Amino acid sequence: MKSTPMTEFDTAFAEDTFKGLINFPKYLLSKYIYNEKGDKLFQKIMEMPEYYLTNCEKEILEEHTAAIADSFNGPQGFDIIELGAGDGKKTKILLRHLAEKKYNFTYQPVDISQHVLDELEETLAKEMPQVEVKTQQGTYFKTLERLADYNTRKKIIMVLGSNIGNLLHKDAINFLKNIQNSMSADDMLFMGFDQKKHPQKILNAYNDPAGITEAFNKNHLERINIELEADFDTKNFLHWESYNPETGTAKSFLVSKIAQKVNIKKLDLKVSFEAWETIHTEISQKYDDAVVDWLASEAGLAIENSFSDGENYYKNYVFRK
Ligand code: AVJ
């Protein structure tokens, strides 16, 4: 192992990877899974039968479209700001309804990837040309800061997919606080939270027999191989999922099946693994009303309403400040 830590790194990815792999226990930050291949694998995950989250949220948006649309409306119409829009498949259910009912609104998808935004803009122009789209490239944080000064009419900030589940509670509260800071009194936050349920159902969603989630998890090592010139052999790692029904935390790991050394050239780092040593790679937090209520109140927000699927597997909450 390297004795003198580097003081400067080329990228945040390099620095975070270094920090995570010299830590005990080892970890990697899940946000780095999403390179081009990671995006594609996540699309595949959303199409798997085991990954119930997508269908549940789709069901909610389909079954409650009119009520949701109604709660969005303001005296001068409204602007939907969606953080992490992706391919917008689920959002389009809402947008189609809003356009048909001639609501006065704009759709402003925010994403770090200009490529994702360009594709979304293109499909929207084709499928519903009457919707006014203003894409916003950038980090959530920067965008929210900019939005704080924007107060001409009601804003609906939207975060779908239970994306908040990747954050520890303290980070989730900070994320919600950032959103709260950018909101005016009449603005709303519309956000999806995957719910606590039968532990087996949750484990199955993150441990599919086809191995797509395994490939998704291992893609992190492949990204390190490519971008940081490392020699991880992904065959020597096991994808392992755990779920703690007490805390509601699903945790993903890559477990080293053998004692091994990995060389990460660009970090000037040799990482040693004992047999069965772990790398923690992701959390996918599951919630209940009490926890959502607590997170919201810590961030100066209050639950105004919520919408659920038929099985109560998933909920979309409406928050106000
Ligand atoms: C995009 C964070 C909602 O945690 O359920 C899916 C990512 N990881 N399968 C989730 C994911 C493994 C997903 N989120």
From TrEMBL:
This is L-histidine N(Alpha)-methyltransferase. Residues 14-320 form the Histidine-specific methyltransferase SAM-dependent domain. Pfam families: Methyltransf_33. InterPro entries: EgtD_Methyltrsf_superfamily, MeTrfase_dom, MeTrfase_EgtD-like, SAM-dependent_MTases_sf. Keywords: Methyltransferase, Transferase. It comes from Autumnicola musiva.
